[in-house]
Design goal:
By secondary structure, the protein is α/β, with parallel strands linked by helices. The chain has a single domain (4-165), classed as UDP-galactose 4-epimerase, domain 1, CATH 3.90.25.10. Strands 1, 3, 4 and 6 form a four-stranded mixed beta sheet that branches. Strands 2-5 form a two-stranded parallel sheet. It has helices at 19-32, 53-66, 96-107, 131-136, 144-165, and strands at residues 4-6, 37-41, 47-52, 93-95, 112-116, 125-126.
Length: 166
């Protein structure tokens, strides 16, 4: 069970995307027009966890190679029942406010970030317990700042290709 994913192949639709891909698009567009500010929804206080898709792929291969749900040594739930799934994430959450600041850095946006508190915040905290996968020896390896930088680069390349096709 993965946490919030981001990375190559994400959906950057202006209306139908998730929070991180929507921010990347919004901040990128602000840079393109030299906007002085970017508006973000809510208070910025909810805490979410984000995992790069390459880390998810790595975790899947790791689980196939190192996890057998039927093994007597395999991870179990709190009642001692063998797990049929594992949580995959970083185990680290960030506030939406911190995420916006990181996206601003990754896109080169240097203006102000305004928070529209008339818009809903969503879930106050969403972080997975990744201790069982960690006990098997797996940990996410792509830090958010590094993953954001490569994702912004990929997003911009995707936009350039779309422009060439027009």
């Amino acid at each position: 069970m993965p946490t919030n994913l981001y990375g190559p192949g994400d959906n950057y639709h202006p209306i139908d995307s998730h929070v991180l891909s929507a921010m990347i698009r919004r901040f990128h567009e602000a840079v393109q027009v030299n906007a002085l500010s970017v508006a973000c929804c809510g208070s910025g206080t909810p805490q979410l966890e984000f995992l790069h898709v390459d880390d998810l792929g790595d975790a899947c291969v790791f689980a196939l190679e190192h996890w057998d749900p039927t093994s007597t040594n395999g991870p179990r739930d709190n009642c001692g029942i063998p797990l049929s799934f594992l949580n995959v994430g970083t185990g680290v959450d960030v506030t939406i406010r911190e995420l916006a600041a990181a996206v601003a850095v990754a896109t080169g946006f240097q203006g102000e970030i305004h928070w529209d508190e008339t818009k809903p915040d969503g879930t106050p905290k969403k972080q997975l317990d990744v201790s069982r996968l960690a006990a098997l020896g797996w940990r996410a390896r792509i830090p958010l700042s590094e993953g954001l930088a490569s994702t912004v680069t990929q997003f911009r390349q995707h936009l350039s290709l779309q422009m060439v096709r027009l």
